[in-house]
Every structure is written in C-alpha cells, then in structure tokens.
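agent> fetching stored inputs for the adenosine-5'-diphosphate docking request
agent> found them:
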Amino acid sequence: MRNLAPASVFDHYLNISRLLAGQLDFHSVIQSVAAEISHVIPHDHLDVCIILVDEQFHTAYETGLETDWGRRFPAPVSNSPIRTLLWGETEYLLTDDAWSDPQFHFQGAFSHPIFHQSLHSRLHVPLKVQGHVIGALSCSSHRTGLYTMEDIENARVIADLLAPHFFAIRAADQAKRSAIVEAEARAREEGLRLGALKLTEALEAERQRIGMDLHDQILADLTRLSRRLERLARQPDVTGEALEPLFRGLQHSMHDLRQIIEEAKPSVLQLFGFAQAVENHLERSIQESAATLTWSLKDETGGAIDCLEQSVSIALFRIGQEAINNAIRHAQASSIEVQLKASESALTIEVMDDGLGLGNARRLSGGGIENMRTRARLISARFAIKAKAATGGTLVSVSLPIAAKPSGGAAA
Ligand SMILES: Nc1ncnc2c1ncn2[C@@H]1O[C@H](COP(=O)(O)OP(=O)(O)O)[C@@H](O)[C@H]1O
Ligand SMILES: [Mg+2]
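agent> prediction call returned; pasting tokens
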C-alpha cells in the first residue's frame, strides 16, 4: 500500500500547477508533469489522449514507454480501448490486469500495446471542461493489482488541473490548422485567378496577332489589288492576260486568310479528331518551314483522346501545336515524334525532337513555353519540358489526369 500524507500530495499538485505555466504544446506539458505525477501515481506508462474537435478522432501523447498509441494517430474514438470513458458513459476505468479485462478487448479495439508493453494495472479518468469530456488521462504499470480507488481520486484532481490547459492548447492548434487551411484555399484561388488572367492575356495577344496578320497581309494585299483594278478599269485595252496576276493575287490572299482562320480555330480538331489535327499541323508546318524533317505520330489512346471536353482538347491541341512549332523553329532536328498515350489515370501527349536541346536557348521562354504551362494548369494537367538524355533533343510532355470511369456502366 502506498501511503502519501495529504500535505505532500497537495505539494505535488501545486508543483504540477506551476509546471504547467508556459507550456505551449501537449508534449511539453506531459513531459514536464510526468515525474511529478509519478510521485502521486507511480506508473511505467502515462498518456493523455485528446479528442479532436470533430469528436470522431483522437490523438495520444505519452511518456515512459513509446507505443503505437502515440504513433498511429489520429485514430477513431470508436476503436479506443477506453471509448466508454471518452464517450462519457463511465466516470473512470480501473483494472488490476488489463490483459484479461474484457472491457479493453472488443472487436476492433486498438489494444495491442497493452500486450506489447506488458501493461497490467491501468487507471483512466476523463479530462473534462465544463462537464464535457475532451480526453483522458491514463496511467499504466507492469505490475498487476497496483491501483485503488484512492489513485482514481488523485488522478481526478490531476486531470482537473490539466484539462483547462489541454483545452486551450487544443483550441490554439485548431485555430492554427484552420488558418493554414484557409491560407491554402486562398493561395489556390489566387493561383487559378492568375492562371486565368494569364490565359486571357495570351488569348488577347492571340487576337491581336490575328488582327495584325489580317491587317498586314490580307488588307495590304487587297488594297494593292483594288488599286490595280482601278488602274486597269481606266485603261481601254484590258485583256484576260492583264487580269491573270490579279486572279493569282486574289487566290493568294484567300489562301492566307484561310490559314489565319485555321490557326485561330482548330476546326480539323473538331471535325476529324485529335490525332488527325496533330498530323495535319505537323505536315503543314514542316512543309512550310522547308526543313528536311521526318515525323511520326502514334495514337495509343484507343479513342480516349477524342472523348474530352472541347475546351480541354483545344487546350491540349494548342500545347501540342506550340511544342511542334518550337521543335521545327528552334531545334534543327531531323525528326519529330508525337505520342498520344493513355493509362488508367492519365492521358499523355509527348512531343519529342532529336535536335539541339534547350541548352543553347538564349531565353527559356518567349511566351510560348509559358503559354503551354498556363494552358496545362488551367485544365489541371501536368506540363514538363526537358532535355532527352539518351538521344539529345527536347521532350515536351503534358499529362491530363482522368477520373476513373464510373462503374456499373454497360461496358463491353
Ligand atoms: N524544341 C526545342 N529545341 C530547342 N530549343 C527550344 C525548343 N523549344 C524551345 N526552345 C528554346 O526556348 C525558347 C523559348 O521558347 P518559346 O517560349 O516557345 O518562345 P519562342 O518560340 O517565341 O522563341 C526558344 O526561343 C528556344 O530557344
Ligand atoms: Mg515558341
């Protein structure tokens, strides 16, 4: 029997109170008071479990021995061996031997540390704030039959000293966590807003470019043509031969105009599908560049690439287009390879060249790369541009996460 004089117990309580001052987290509180508590309630293991604000989960902080109780958290309250106490169904738990006490061993109980650490005698009292259980104080010993109702009474006093501190720390932790969640949400929103802004700017620039092209090429051509027509009209001996260059000029302008419209709106994409549109772009751009380049295109997506929302597939196509343009314009490559791939979780487009690589780039973005990145971000795709180690050259890849298909469909 342990007999402590009431005055000495009171001294220990006072010490516990003093030690609590200035401790700002659960661990430091427990570390600092454990020795003092052991004078009143001897133990090999002490832990404090705190119910999270959602009431469903709890965390545990321990001293003495390290067990899985302290490592595997947060854990559901319903799996705790002392859940009746945490639910407020009982005022205390006291056992001479937790190994054989059935109240700790129910289906799903997280009780293996009792065996792993040879915990026999155990006592548990609730930490209460204004009558509400916010957690529990637990002491355990390797010995059997150690604790009595007197220990429970002492533990209650200690729990009452600790509870308000833990309550305050829990509230501070919660506030900190909410602040972080809120800051993250705000950062995400801001990122999206900036992305949209950049794309709007890019689209605006694109519109300006189209306007300029129309102005510089087509309008200039048409103006020239109409002047010549005027001049011709004033001449008495106009022949079909004289009109010939005019027709050619007109045809040229119409061709240019078609091309500008084509670039502004990838209609092939909608009409013939993604792979065909990429192929079309490859063929035409290489032909126009007059470079001697071979190309290949592999579509291994089994049609998945053509099941995307229009805005998503346009964004992907634009990215592919720019990657191809860069390979033709900057890489001095001898071949360009485009691969469209599909996995369970993503659709990936890769544009590879065997050219100079990015090492000699004077600047790593003239806007084109930045636009690819922005377009990818707006459709939540991952974008990368990097050197291809084995063969030299550059690899652009854009990978769009796809949700798993809902089950239960009439899949063949
Ligand atoms: N496939 C590539 N091979 C070699 N260099 C490249 C390639 N793609 C991009 N670059 C380099 O990166 C620079 C930036 O590309 P980009 O942002 O598209 O701007 P721009 O096409 O206007 O030059 C290019 O000027 C070029 O030097
Ligand atoms: Mg470019």
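agent> quick read of the result: The pocket of adenosine-5'-diphosphate (ligand 1) is lined by residues 326-327, 330-331, 353, 355-358, 361-369, 394 (CB under 6 Å).
agent> awaiting further instructions
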